[in-house]
Design brief:
The complex is a heterodimer of chains A (303) and B (357).
Chain A (H helix, E strand, L loop, with lengths): L1 H20 L2 H15 L1 H19 L1 H9 L4 H15 L7 H21 L4 H10 L6 H4 L5 E2 L2 E2 L6 E3 L2 E3 L1 H17 L9 H23 L2 H20 L23 E5 L10 E5 L8 H8 L8
Antiparallel strand pairs in A: 1-2, 3-4, 5-6
Helix pairs in contact in A: 1-2, 1-6, 2-6, 2-11, 3-6, 4-5, 9-10, 9-11, 10-11
Chain B lengths: L1 H23 L8 E5 L2 E6 L2 E6 L5 E5 L14 E3 L2 E5 L5 E5 L5 E5 L11 E2 L3 E5 L4 E6 L4 E6 L9 E3 L2 E5 L4 E6 L5 E6 L9 E3 L4 E6 L3 E6 L5 E5 L13 E3 L2 E5 L4 E6 L5 E6 L9 E3 L2 E5 L4 E6 L5 E6 L9 E3 L2 E5 L7 E5 L4 E5 L4
Antiparallel strand pairs in B: 1-2, 2-3, 3-4, 5-6, 6-7, 7-8, 9-10, 10-11, 11-12, 13-14, 14-15, 15-16, 17-18, 18-19, 19-20, 21-22, 22-23, 23-24, 25-26, 26-27, 27-28, 29-30, 30-31, 31-32
């Protein structure tokens, strides 16, 4: 099922590109970009949802609520859900696009692995994967020389007799760049998410670098192109945080973004004054009910 | 909070270590490499080469003694006198002591995997590699010459006098001068060549199949085609070497169809449905041939009248050509309960071998 729906079509598209461009390295680059392009609407939606949640979590109301119900987790969760509902956001909103993208990314990786068949059994499996209209005899074996690399082998460039893993180094650099660009602005000194992101930023480049160092360079090339494409996607959607890398650039905080100002009912029973908070524009089109709710004048709860 | 961060860091370290551990070893899936000689069978699979006694199927030694994920072996070992020659997927080629399994030397200049069985004439060892080179080594492990091809090599070389015939994934069958590696001739086929050709010394003909759905007869002196079979879509991909019978040859294609052709003309003598997809080669035992079906079935037929003699079913896949040693048919199983299964010539199970952990 997985092979028929994901691996087989992906592998055949990759092989078809290879037949056209006559270069497996270029085919990997084009195929990775194609997949990134196809999944772009999902990525954009995910980024929008994530930003909306971040903006909401930076709002004074949210912080106040967090402080107030610090010792009552049940009530805090209830209030949070209420707030998410009122503002048309969902903490799980960014999960669905990620979940949909996940099998595609896995499929992309596996199809590149399949196409780089090097043993008789792997060649047999590849031959059986190829659709009849693509002539398997012309495709196999795949010419996997690209620049100085043999895409089926780990990459090393001999510089004055020293074997340097250039591609692995570039993968480390671009993974670091990607994690930095994607890093959300910290919401405070005690921000757990920021602390976790920092630890991830340290280990992810090392992990990806080690994989690029030891695996076939065709996969390292995929890691590189994927990293760069992600950075470009973030930049295009305006979500990139370049100030993390280039400190002279002005930090683009979530507050600086245009936000929809709505007046929400103050849930605090002890305070009669209304609280105005900035809430982000919902990522998805708000329902008519939500619009009506937003336009409704503030109400006070019956005591 | 600190605890949570520490947990995340710990999780990443464990994941990194696990993934890195996997990444360190060659990522390849292949079938056991099998060979036999001197009342022993040698099999390369995963982290070891095993020497197994053919009488009772007991392990005599394994190399390396302690397995490592960095070293994976699939190439069939070559037995030559008191030595075993075998390459691995860590790009190294070894000479081992056949009696005890200790390493005598290692050749480490290759940049790709050794998947093919090596060949030797007693003076030179020919070891093709996936790094697009055919390496010729002196008997002390030093490099004599190397030949550069377009793609990798996975087929065992065939030494005929002063020349060595090598089948390549680049669709070419080449002949090299064994003394210096000079190209003597090359013939291009329609598809990749996975297995070496069969050689008939009387006619000087080579018989080789390719993934291009064809089987060719080629003159071993000149590389010229004598005839080709499969031009009209009669066969599918050929993954194994044909067997020679008197003035004919028998081979199977991927679909499992068995063909008997006339050696001189390529005319079809008879065909037979083997019963399933087949990648492994046929094994000839007197007037019997044994076919190993991919689905795990072993079938024996009488050659003269194609009468089915016996069928045995194994748990696992069969991709490796069975071998005959000490009156036993020995089969290597991929992803099965056992690694080796031995039968007597009547198809009765004699012993099985599963490596101890």
């Amino acid at each position: 099922m997985w092979d028929t729906l994901i691996i087989q079509p992906f592998t055949n598209v990759l092989l078809a590109i290879t037949l056209v461009v006559k270069n497996f390295g270029v085919a990997i680059i084009l195929f990775t970009l194609l997949i990134k392009l196809i999944t772009y609407p999902l990525t954009a939606k995910q980024l929008k949802q994530t930003a909306a949640i971040q903006e909401l979590q930076n709002s004074p109301r949210y912080k106040k609520m967090m402080e107030k119900y610090r010792d009552n987790k049940e009530k805090l969760a209830e209030e949070q859900m209420k707030l998410y509902k009122e503002t048309g956001t969902s903490p799980f909103g960014s999960c669905l696009p990620t979940l949909i993208q996940f099998p595609i990314i896995i499929g992309l990786y596996q199809s590149i692995m399949k196409a780089m068949a090097a043993t008789p059994i792997e060649i047999l499996r590849l031959e059986r994967l190829v659709y009849p209209f693509l002539d398997a005899t012309k495709i196999i074996p795949i010419q996997n020389r690209f620049l100085w690399m043999d895409l089926g082998q780990p990459e090393r460039l001999a510089v004055f007799g020293v074997q340097i893993p250039i591609l692995a180094i570039i993968v480390v650099a671009t993974t670091w760049l990607q994690t930095k660009v994607m890093e959300p602005p910290s919401t405070g000194a005690g921000d757990q998410a920021a602390a976790m992101t920092k630890s991830m930023n340290l280990y992810m480049p090392l992990l990806m670098g080690w994989m690029a160092y030891s695996l076939a360079s065709g996969l390292a090339l995929y890691f590189l192109v994927s990293n760069l494409a992600t950075v470009v996607q973030y930049s295009v959607t305006g979500r990139s945080n370049w100030s993390k890398i280039l400190p002279f650039l002005k930090t683009k905080t979530p507050e600086a973004k245009p936000a929809q100002t709505v007046v929400l009912p103050d849930e605090d029973e002890d305070e009669d004054d209304e609280e105005e908070i900035e809430t982000p524009k919902p990522a998805s089109k708000p329902s008519a009910r939500a619009i009506v709710k937003q336009q409704r004048p503030p109400q006070k709860r019956k005591k | 909070m600190t605890k949570k961060v520490l947990k995340v860091i710990l999780l990443f370290i464990i994941s990194a270590a696990l993934l890195a551990g996997c990444a360190m070893g060659p990522r390849a899936e292949s079938a056991p490499g099998l060979s036999a000689g001197e009342s022993a069978v040698y099999v390369s699979y995963m982290q070891h080469v095993y020497k197994v006694d053919t009488k009772i199927g007991s392990e005599l030694w394994r190399y390396p003694a302690t397995g490592s994920v960095q070293v994976v072996l699939y190439a069939p070992p070559l037995l030559n006198g008191n030595s075993i020659f075998v390459g691995d997927l860590a790009n190294k080629f070894h000479q081992l002591d056949a009696a005890g399994g200790s390493e005598l030397w290692s050749f480490t200049q290759a940049k790709g995997w050794f998947q093919a069985k090596a060949a030797t004439n007693g003076d030179v060892i020919i070891a093709p590699s996936s790094d697009r080179h055919v390496y010729a080594l002196n008997m002390d492990g030093s490099l004599k010459w190397k030949f550069s091809g377009e793609f990798g090599f996975v087929a065992e070389p065939l030494i005929i006098g002063d020349s060595v015939i090598v089948a390549g994934l680049d669709h070419k069958l080449i002949a090299l001068n064994i003394e210096n590696g000079d190209l003597l001739w090359e013939t291009e086929l329609k598809g990749s060549l996975i297995a070496p050709p069969a050689y008939d010394a009387a006619s000087g003909s080579l018989f080789v199949g390719s993934l291009g759905n064809e089987l060719l007869s080629i003159d071993s002196k000149t590389g010229k085609r004598n005839w080709s079979f499969g031009d009209n879509g009669e066969i599918t991909a050929v993954y194994a070497t044909p067997i020679l019978v008197e003035d004919g040859l028998i081979f199977t294609d991927e679909s499992g169809k068995v063909f008997a052709l006339d050696q001189a003309t390529g005319a079809v003598r008879w065909t037979l449905d083997g019963g399933g997809e087949t990648v492994a080669g046929l094994l000839r035992v007197d007037d019997t041939f044994v076919i190993a079906l991919e689905k795990g079935e072993l079938r024996a037929y009488r050659i003269s009248d194609r009468t089915p003699l016996w069928t045995r079913t194994l748990d696992g896949k069969l991709y490796t050509t069975p071998v005959l040693e000490a009156e036993k048919i020995i089969v290597a199983v991929t992803k099965g309960k056992v690694l080796l299964q031995a039968y007597d010539l009547a198809g009765n199970p004699v012993w099985s071998f599963t490596p101890a952990k």
